[in-house]
Design a protein that fits this description.
The complex is a heterodimer. Chain A is mainly α. Chain A contains 24 helices and no strands. Chain A has one domain: MetI-like fold, CATH 1.10.3720.10. In chain A, α14 crosses α18. Chain A starts with 43 loop residues before the first helix and ends with a helix. The N terminus of chain A is likely disordered. Chain B folds into two domains: 229 residues, Rossmann fold (3-Layer(aba) Sandwich), CATH 3.40.50; 121 residues, no CATH class. In chain B, the strands form four sheets. A six-stranded mixed β-sheet of chain B has the order 7-8-9-3-10-11, with helices on both faces. Classes of the chains: A mainly alpha, B alpha+beta. At the A-B interface, α9 and α10 of A face β7 and α4 of B.
């Protein structure tokens, strides 16, 4: 009896930006489908051979040879795309070298950088633990207690994802105009980002085998100790993955902290960029930010360790029992209600108030229509590009997994984890210094989007290709379909919905993207986020409100889809 | 006063009645098996005894101490009852050693030695202690779960289908090993299973459960040879059930005159025979003549499956009164050893050994 591996590679959608991380292990279905690495798996060539064998249609050795060659072309394409994805990182290193060691030291070791570092570290160190505690409490209440209306509260705990972080901030600043500084930053950050922790934790709680808790109780542990010694340790992966996401967002976010006048590396880089363009100062700040991101990634890997929390054993898990809250019900209701009020009530009330105050005047339809059209165009084009770029990678990660593929994939994830401002700055630097005609062109911004959102497309594609095991393709061939038709009628048919979902997620990310769009977009571009930003920058909050509303309305369906998906993945 | 006493224990989940009022007495140091088809409520009963859930009605008492009465119940962690679940329910985030030592206080004297000793008792190698549950085979996982439960020195051990996930060969040897181990440790044991052979071979007391009630409770032999009704008879093994006229300690049916296990009855009732009570002897059509009280049959089907062979025999002559014969001449299904299995079309003589059981 093999232990069933439930840990799964996951995709989490992140309101304004997504970092997909294979380490989130959030969705189960592919482990049993992905072929095992061949014996002697250290050799990439052996992997390719294996994949060729896997893909060989029955009986025809010649066709097998052809397939083998195509598999290696796919690998080559995936390797090229990964190399291109590493471009921003490479350029930061190159700029550092060009700048010269003394200048680098002077630019990095100065009080301003120290100040930013303290701000950023404090922000992460304070926000993440609060978000963890809040998310665990919410997840437990909604998943494991008999809290009245727990399905509703569960959805309301995910819904804040539909609101871009800078809209959260906009709502709060117009609600409490004096809000600023670290604690304001912590408050708005927790509200905007806790669903990243809530989603995986709630999914993990749902998936926990209640037999373990029973076993612990039978061994003499009271409910609190069962939670501490059995439940909490099993949430570790979810907490690690979610914390990483929250941390990376805190490092990458720009708009949120500008509103409440709290300086982080990202805001400082944009300021620097606006005053001195792409000077070495901005680039060196970006280098420090990259180091921070890599540090977070490494920290998460270290804390997570090599744990594999598989459900051991066979058979379906018994349905979980929900704890009776009894008299504490009313008190417990205060938590989700309070959170919903702060995370949804404040933005909706504020936007509603500004819309009322602005009346019909703020609905400048020509302007809104133009912004909407440009946003949709960029979003769809970027989504198509990112999905196309992710295809080779997704294909080999399912059909020909191996060490090379894992290396290439982690390149993509690291780049995807970098803040948009870093990627944008790198692309500006590259285009200005090497390929000036490409500066602020459609090509560059789409390229930037593809780099930033490739992991998002990759995750969805991979999951959907995993839905179409190679056996189906073989079965189709054995039933007399020629290879192309077999591919069409099985793999492509089955993976199309997943690919579409991935595209939608990328499109959503682009719609709510602000920093990179501002830096890379061709002159005259005005997306919804940019229009929102420029109006709110002029303190014309009423004119900004329609744009906020449209962005939220566009994000809601995807957030709902994500919520449903996380429920389904957990087997409900 | 028995060690464990259940009286009128009932539990419903919404409109579904899982237990409809169950009484059971378990003697100290004994082994009891609760057997029934899936969904009969046996696991619910086990969970109520363990304290994972509280009964709606009824009383559960262990060693004179009331564990549950009406809605009130002592929680599981204060009961000191060991549980081994179907798939072991090992903690995936802990090593085997930490799994076994989970219930032992961290500052307990000689904790590490105790863990090694427990592993030894259940037959686990010391090297395994550093591993994780997912690195173990199903049989090893069950042993770890058993060692973990035994570390608590429980007075009562509940086994919830602990062998069902194992291979057939391993299942039998594990069952025997666990039975001996718990016997030696003097731990009272309740086994829940849907496997009748497992129940009969494991326990000194077997309770057959159906639709939330016990159909019959007794020793394995009682249940097998004197089942209370057709359902119990058929659940515990193949049964040949025919109508018969009972008088003077004998039953007359289409199988001839057979001794029965009741004396005083004179009526028409159904009798039950286990197929292994019917012996077959090869003969020929010529051999049939001249012996009116003998029973002959023709082999109509023979399914060879290695050690066992399923033979269908159609009775050729029946000394039975004609009204009972109207029931039909369905062939008898008998299991024989694979060796010397008869061929289709062969004529056999049937002889009944032992007594038939009369249903009430």
């Amino acid at each position: 009896m093999l232990p069933r591996e439930f840990a799964f590679r996951g995709s989490v959608l992140f309101g304004d930006r997504l970092v997909d991380d294979s380490r989130l292990r959030f969705d189960p279905p592919e482990c049993h489908i992905a072929p095992l690495p061949p014996a002697g798996g250290g050799d990439p060539a052996a992997c390719l051979m294996q994949s060729a064998i896997d893909m060989m249609p029955a009986m025809l050795p010649a066709a097998g040879m052809k397939k083998r060659r195509s598999a290696s072309w796919i690998t080559l394409a995936a390797a090229l795309i990964s190399l291109v994805a590493l471009l921003p990182l490479a350029f930061i290193v190159w700029v550092a070298i060009q700048t010269g060691w003394d200048t680098v030291v002077a630019l990095i070791f100065r009080p301003r950088v120290g100040e930013l570092l303290v701000n950023t570290v404090l922000l992460v160190v304070v926000t993440v633990p609060i978000a963890i505690v809040l998310s665990v409490a919410l997840a437990w209440l909604t998943e494991r207690s008999d809290l009245p209306g727990n399905r509703w509260w569960s959805w309301l705990s995910v819904a804040p994802l539909a609101i871009p972080a800078f809209v959260h901030s906009y709502a709060w600043i117009s609600f409490v105009p004096g809000l600023h500084g670290l604690w304001a930053g912590v408050l708005v950050s927790v509200i905007a980002y806790f669903p990243f922790l809530y989603l995986p934790i709630a999914a993990a709680l749902r998936r926990l085998d209640p037999a373990l808790e029973d076993a612990a109780a039978a061994l003499g542990l009271g409910p609190w100790r069962v939670f501490a010694r059995v439940v909490l340790p099993q949430l570790r992966l979810a907490i690690c993955g979610g914390s990483l996401l929250v941390g990376l967002h805190l490092l990458a976010e720009y708009g949120l902290y500008v509103f409440i006048r709290f300086d982080t590396f990202t805001t400082a880089i944009v300021d620097q960029f606006q005053s001195t363009f792409n000077g070495p100062a901005a680039n060196m700040l970006a280098a420090v930010l990259v180091v921070c991101c890599l540090f977070l990634l490494a920290l998460e890997v270290m804390i997570r360790g090599e744990e594999r929390y598989a459900r051991v054993g066979s058979g379906a898990a018994r349905k979980q029992q929900r704890a009776r809250l009894g008299r504490a019900t009313l008190f417990c209701l205060l938590l989700p209600a309070g959170v919903a009020l702060l995370s949804l009530g404040v933005p909706f009330v504020t936007v509603g108030r500004w819309l009322l105050a602005g009346g019909t005047e703020v609905w400048r339809w020509d302007e809104i229509g133009l912004a909407l059209g440009q946003t949709l165009f960029l979003a769809i084009a970027g989504a198509v590009l990112a999905t196309l770029a992710a295809m080779p990678m997704a294909w080999i990660s399912i059909r020909a997994p191996g060490p090379l593929q894992r290396l290439l994939e982690s390149c993509n994830y690291i780049v995807g984890a970098l803040p948009g401002v870093v990627i944008a700055l790198a692309l500006v630097t590259i285009t200005v210094r090497v390929a000036l005609p490409l500066y602020q062109t459609l090509f560059t911004i789409l390229f930037g989007y593809a780099l930033m959102f490739l992991p998002r497309a990759l995750i969805s594609l991979r999951a959907s290709i995993a839905q179409a095991p190679v056996e189906l393709e073989r079965a189709a061939s054995s039933l007399g379909r020629p290879p192309v038709k077999a591919l069409w009628s099985t793999t492509i048919r089955l993976s199309a919905p997943g690919a579409a979902a991935g595209m939608a997620m990328v499109a959503l990310g682009i719609t709510n993207e602000l920093t990179a769009t501002q830096m890379l977009a061709p002159n005259g571009t005005r997306t919804l986020a940019m229009a929102f930003w420029s109006y709110s920058g002029e303190i014309d909050y009423a004119s900004a409100a329609p744009y906020a509303l449209i962005m939220v309305a566009m994000s809601l369906p995807m957030t709902w889809w994500l919520y449903i998906q996380s429920k389904r993945m957990a087997g409900r | 006063m028995s060690f464990l006493e259940l009286s009128g224990v009932a539990k419903s989940y919404g409109p579904v009645t899982a237990l409809a009022g169950v009484d059971l007495a378990v003697e100290s140091g004994s082994r009891t098996a609760i057997v029934g088809p899936s969904g009969c409520g046996k696991t619910t009963l086990l969970r109520l005894i363990a304290g994972f859930e509280a009964p709606d009605r009824g009383r559960i008492a262990l060693d004179g101490k009331v564990l549950a009465n009406g809605g009130a119940a002592v929680p599981a962690h204060r009961r000191g009852i060991g549980v081994v679940a179907q798939d072991g329910a090992l903690f995936p985030h802990l090593t085997i050693a930490d799994n076994i030592g989970f219930g032992i206080p961290r500052n307990a004297d000689k904790r590490a030695e105790h863990i090694v000793e427990l592993a030894y008792i259940v037959g686990l190698d010391k090297a395994i202690l550093k591993r994780r549950p997912h690195e173990l085979s199903g049989g090893q996982q069950q042993r770890v779960a058993l060692a973990r439960a035994m570390a608590m020195k429980p007075r009562l051990m509940l086994l919830d289908e602990p062998f069902s996930a194992l291979d057939t060969g391993l299942r039998a040897s594990m069952r025997k090993a666990v039975a001996e181990l718990l016997e030696e440790a003097g731990i009272t044991t309740i086994l829940v299973t849907h496997d009748q052979a497992e129940a009969l071979s494991f326990a000194s007391q077997v309770a057959v459960m159906r639709e939330g009630l016990f159909s019959q409770v007794g020793t394995p032999r009682e249940l097998y040879f004197q089942p209370r009704d057709r359902m119990v008879a058929e659940f515990l093994g193949d049964a040949i059930i025919v109508p018969a006229r009972i008088a003077d300690g004998f039953a007359v049916s289409r199988l001839g005159r057979i001794a029965v296990d009741t004396k005083g009855r004179r009526d028409v009732a159904r009798i039950m025979l286990r197929p292994e009570q019917i012996l077959l002897k090869r003969t020929s059509r010529e051999g049939m003549s001249g012996t009116p009280d003998m029973l002959f049959g023709e082999v109509t089907d023979c399914e060879f499956a290695g050690s066992v062979c399923t033979v269908a025999v159609r009775l050729l002559n029946s000394p039975d009164p004609p009204d009972a014969a109207a029931i039909g001449n369905t062939p008898l299904i008998l299991r024989r050893t694979g060796m010397d299995a008869p061929e289709i079309g062969e004529i056999v003589r049937l002889t009944v050994t032992g007594k038939a059981h009369v249903f009430a």
